Amino acid sequence: MKGNVLTIQVPSAYFYDWLEEHYVDELRRALLKELGTDGRLEYSVVVDQGNEQAPPRALHLPPSRKTSAPDPRDAPQPMPSTVGNPLAGSGRAASARYVNSQAVRTTPRGNFGINNQSADTMAPPRNPFDTARPMDGNLVPSQLNGSYTFDNYIEGDCNRLARSAGLAVANKPGTTSFNPLMVYGGVGLGKTHLVQAIGNHIKATAPERFVLYVSAEKFTNQFIDSVQRAQVQDFANFYLQVDALILDDVQFLANKGKTQEMFFHIFNHLHQSGKQIVMTSDRPPKDLQGLEDRLLNRFKWGLTADVQSPDFETRVAIIRNKMEQDGIDIPPDHVVDYLANSVHTNVRELEGVIASLVAQSSLSRRDIDLEMVKQALRHIIEEVEAEVNLDFIQKTVAAYFNISVELLKDKTRKKEVVTARQVAMYFAKHHTAHTLKTIGFHFGGRDHTTVMHSVQTVSDLVDSDKKFREQVEELRKKFAK
Predict the structure, then answer these.
(1) Burial environment of residue 153 by CB neighbours within 10 A (0 to 12, 13 to 18, 19 or more)
(2) How far apart, in whole angstroms, are the C-alpha atoms of residue 443 and residue 427?
(3) What is the pTM of this model?
(4) Closest C-alpha to 6, from 33, 36, 39
(5) CB atoms within 10 A of CB 27
(6) DSSP class of residue 79?
(7) 227-250, pLDDT tens digit by residue?
(8) Residue 191, annotated ligand binder?
(9) What is the pLDDT of residues 447-478, one digit of tens each?
(10) Within a 10 A sphere around the Cβ of 245, how many other Cβ atoms?
(11) What is the DSSP secondary structure assignment for residue 112, as one 8-state letter?
(12) 188 appears as a binding residue in the annotation
């Protein structure tokens, strides 16, 4: 315990997940009781056990928003003896042993068979990204977009856990307990940016490493092509030599049995050899349908982190950063706030609006103002003018209770003001996409627990007080879209 922060150290990400699933509510209640609303919970996850020369290294993480944790039976099991294990060892020699002894040709029945070809006489494997050339890990491009870096990946409550874990992996690939690292979330929330930033960081700090980014769709198509060309052995040998594999949209492997079997063997070898595996998905492992249990269990060996829709503050930071990168003068605060309040679905859509504004500003040689923003939004987002936002809610509730908007944000504890403030927070929670923290910020910088209390208080009064319920319903009609 230091100040108002309770830090719990755990030996791996697995225990972090387990505590989050089973005890986070009890811990938060205890914090609220002992430290009040200022109490904070933090985890210290050991990512490097250290040695005689270097002390252990830990990564500090906030509580996650996950709703499930891995079953204890899914924890990594000790690897079997290296005797008779074709995946034992590390590096490219082990890759050759695997190809020589294990998988990687098809029989007439479509099953994987044994290839007795000597590794010494084996021809150079073909490159599935360019089948006209032999594979050379030093020459094959990593398929990374160099513009995706940690420097331009804006951190917020929506992605802090994923970004922190990603940076730890990028600094020490294959040696942390975050292996594999699974990042999941909806469309356009920055998953691909984050995992490619990991790859670019590894390439920048360790250029000798073979880093490879590939979508699950391309991986599948390459495997099918290798089967048709009778080059499955080359396909496997290529991927077995990767030092850091980044597989995007792993859900695409669903119901593709043979492709899953090949990825299972590649995953096992890379993981055992201390190579880093990073994956993305549109949903957590427990919700992935059509994937084999043995693969899903391995996905839980490391850390699963989600990215969510950006909150208001993060959207503002994204807008400012994007415009600065494009060399455009940043508009006044009220213009930026209007844009951030109007586009809150995902980062990709927000960046699309910004790109449109940058183009209009450059072509018309005008600074970006509120009128230009409204014009751009009118063509991209339907009915933006009718959208309920925090400003509208505050003005409407303040007028109904005959008080000023400033009083809603003030520290006064007068009963009539407190009631109006709680009602406004209640509608902000149910009629906007803002997080509790963002709502509290716009009501005089109040804590998210105050917002939670306000929402619960209003809900209880609606159930028990008929007159109050009628007032709330009357206000609700003003916010109906």
Answers:
(1) buried
(2) 13
(3) 0.57
(4) 39
(5) 16
(6) P
(7) 999 888 889 989 999 999 999 999
(8) yes
(9) 889 999 999 999 999 889 889 998 998 888 77
(10) 25
(11) B
(12) yes
